[in-house]
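Input record (Table S2, row 771):
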Amino acid sequence: MTATVPTIDSPAALADSLRKVDYLADDRIAQVAFLADRLGKPILVEGPAGVGKTELAKSLARMWGRRLIRLQCYEGLDESKALYEWNYKKQLLRIQADHDKEWDELEDDIFSDEFLLARPLLEAIRSETPVVLLIDEIDRVEIETEALLLEVLSDFQVSIPELGTISASTRPFVVLTSNNTRELSEALKRRCLFLHISYPDPEREQQILLTRVPELPENLARQIARIVRSIRQMDLKKAPSVSESIDWARTLIALAVEHLDTEVVTDTLHVLLKYQSDIEKATAELTRR
Amino acid sequence: MTTPPAPITSLITAFVGELRAAGVPVSMVETIDAMRALEVIDIGDRAGLKATLAATLVKSERHLAAFDTAFEVFFATAPRRGEEGRGTPTGPAAEGGGSGGLGEDEIEDLRRSLLQSLLDNDMEALLDAIGEAVDLLSGFERGRPVGGTYYLYRTLRRLDVDQIETLLREVLSGREGELGELDRRLVDEEVAERIEQLRQAVQDEIRRRLVEDRGREAVARTLRRPLTEDVDLMHATRADLEALEDAIVPLTRKLAARLARRRRMLRRGRLDFRKTMRRSLATGGVPIDPQFRVQKPHRPEVFLLCDISGSMATFARFTLQFTYAMSTQFSKLRSFAFIDTVDEITEFFGPGTDFTDALARVAAEADVVHQDGHSDYGTSLAAFLERYGRDVTPRSTIIITGDARNNYRPPQDELLGEIAAKARAVYWLNPEPPSYWDTGDSVMSRYARWCEGVHEVRTLRQLEAFVEELSLPRSRPRGRSL
Ligand SMILES: Nc1ncnc2c1ncn2[C@@H]1O[C@H](COP(=O)(O)OP(=O)(O)OP(=O)(O)O)[C@@H](O)[C@H]1O
Ligand SMILES: [Mg+2]
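Output record (adenosine-5'-triphosphate complex):
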């Protein structure tokens, strides 16, 4: 890992550093990330799919040269997968191997670090060097697990009955993302800085396209960005995301397209749109005179 | 790190007061966070300040619009004045329908500079030109009790924005070279966007002058708009409706989680003494394992009947969407649409179907009109009783949504009495305010007699409150009685 951590003394400087790792932040994103760093508060990033929420956390980690620890949330995620769990198999084996030992001694033995499986939260807290902790798609967990996460984010410590309390030696920089399929608790929201990311404007999307698909001609990038914006304004089930416009750009390059017209667009719409009914609707709109 | 000077902290306090007045929940902790944040940013950078306050004070997308409006008022910059010497024409000349002594040439000049700055994307030049336009064309007068919209309208009309639009389209089309159909579409969208930008900038300038004239608090008060959850469904704009639709699913999931928690608490129930003692025999009579009387989680079986005639269609759509999003809370959910007769629409909303598709099918396929397409609650109730009456049991909760405006036809409310006698309870959700009930052709109180509750439901918040009550075990939402 490189030791040259740039000094970042303003949101503008942060945006510049992010650009160097290929992330195009707008003013708001840069301001909130800067603030989160200065205040030591988590960021809660919300917005539609594929607008760069996850990528923001990854890029911040790259920018600072910090390790990224990711907790991917899903329905049913619990403490043993988020925090830690004891390695039962290994414990059993040890008990069998040491069956002549006194229980007290054995107990101390098998509830030691060696048998602990650290999950992302504990790992982030135990890390000697500062990390970026990404808690991705938190809206998917049950409210009880959310409460657990909140607890960890409040104290940055974990208490393990058999081992005692482990406190963070360095504070992780925390990014939580949500697709807003469920409203999060007020308590969690109060603890975080809130950042809503929506689709980028055409100028920024064009820049994103050019960084992610370097071989893309500028003119085509501009056209793609504008057409995608136009399609997003239609009343669709699922609007195209930034990742989809990137996919589209790659497809167009593969097809050696240089200029977009109605025919090319309607022929390749399936890369941008995932529902047949959306494809039909967009085709009708685009070919209407 | 220095403590920010007093004026900004008191400004923040007043700003938080305005946010709260507009309905945005801002806690003490968040206010303190905002103040702390000001210590680490450059408060001279207005955009940065705005992002900072938004991140610390507002925690839901639904509240961002209210935040934006309040921010623009509370942190308004000074108005832009046009060139010195022109002054602000006020009084009768500016009042008249004409240009108040202003030559068409001068207006033409203004139009040119607005157009040029829009094309160059030169914000500074645009703001200057707008300052001048508002000076010359709005007829702004200090202390005059009219809203900003009035001045906005006057400025845009006298500027003749259509002309700017035409010119803009000409220039942009020229830039794109040979124009295909697709390019034309893109140019149109770009023109629309720039014109909106212009309109917005004029509005902002007028707002700045109003703030200067009347003070922040007064202007902010007149600009308050209801939050998404408080938007009146019956008078919602298109944008409101979209925001409402986006809000429904997250809200219902949160509500479901809250209900599950409350149910768990209730279910723990009272100590079952007899059962505890019986168990204790195994432990030599020591009651170490207390037994609780488990309450059967009662989930209502719901029949939802929606008036889907013209004026009620939006309301029906939202009650349907909300209720279906909450359907796991009910042991059974059947839905019906009616205008002058009724048809079951349950099958359109089967698992996995898209809600919008389902609604389209309701509109196309449901058989709800036998007469002239105006609501007839009487004939609809008769049809319901005849066709589905035998399915209604003491476990059924009937919810009727509509304004009870019966077009002066016979209400046949005794039929609702018959339904109520078979059911557990009948509820009525009426989107009109209670003061309208029983006026004109509304026969609300005729039906209310048979209802456990009649609820005014015209916002998402009211709908949420009703469904929450309904879904809890053994509770019976008490509505208004007439
Ligand atoms: N600002 C940006 N700069 C550079 N690339 C971006 C930016 N925003 C999005 N992208 C690109 O879009 C892709 C999708 O972004 P990402 O996976 O972060 O979306 P997301 O918001 O987390 O979506 P989801 O809700 O589906 O998880 C990224 O891999 C990246 O290539
Ligand atoms: Mg993601």
